[in-house]
């Protein structure tokens, strides 16, 4: 294969010495046709990460599913990307829930990812105070530190 490429290169170098405009156009068109043919022979890339249910089913590896709440989809996507899981989110009509389909071969990684996801959502939910609660504490702190301001109203006559 390598020897054939070298042979063509030498032939092209010899022919380019007598190169005209038409010959250059023919050579470039042949090169483009050959490049297109090589691209078509390459196998298509396998999609990774987030995809549609149809694309996931086309990989013929079996599918499993997990149901999660609607408001948690964004954080689940981050965790799934971290674990390298191929998944397909599907919104269940009439409910505020998503079905997450994944490859059956990714089941162990999915269990680890789902464990981390539930830890973040369920365990840490009560620990983090809301922004309004923080603001109220800061207001109380400022009120206790700063002396009360007196209002002076004077009328000039």
Task: Draw up the topology in text.
Blueprint: H1 2-16, H2 21-41, H3 53-58, E1 63-69, H4 73-83, E2 87-91, E3 97-103, H5 107-123, H6 131-145
Antiparallel strand pairs: 1-3, 2-3
Model description:
- The chain is an alpha+beta fold and 157 residues long.
- It has two domains: 2-41; 53-124, 2-Layer Sandwich (Ribosomal Protein S8, Chain: A, domain 1), CATH 3.30.1370.
- The chain is 54% helix and 12% strand.
- The protein has six helices and three strands, in the order H-H-H-E-H-E-E-H-H.
- Strands 1-3-2 form a three-stranded antiparallel sheet.
- Helix 4 (73-83) crosses helix 5 (107-123).
- The model has no long low-confidence stretch (mean pLDDT 78).
Concise structural overview:
The protein has about 160 residues and is an alpha+beta fold.
């Amino acid at each position: 294969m390598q020897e054939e490429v070298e042979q063509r290169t030498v032939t092209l170098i010899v022919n380019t010495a007598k190169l005209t405009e038409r010959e250059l156009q023919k050579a470039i068109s042949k090169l483009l046709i050959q490049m297109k043919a090589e691209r078509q022979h390459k196998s298509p890339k396998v999609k990774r990460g987030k995809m549609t249910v149809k694309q996931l089913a086309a990989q013929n590896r079996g599918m499993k599913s997990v149901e999660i709440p609607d408001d948690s989809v964004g954080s689940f996507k981050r965790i799934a990307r971290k674990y390298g899981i191929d998944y397909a989110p599907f919104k269940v009509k009439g409910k505020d829930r998503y079905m997450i389909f994944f490859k059956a071969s990714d089941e162990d990684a999915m269990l680890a990812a789902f464990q981390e996801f539930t830890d973040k959502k369920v365990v840490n939910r009560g620990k983090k105070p809301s922004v309004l609660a923080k603001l109220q504490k800061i207001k109380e702190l400022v009120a206790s530190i700063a002396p009360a301001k007196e209002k002076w109203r004077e009328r000039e006559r």
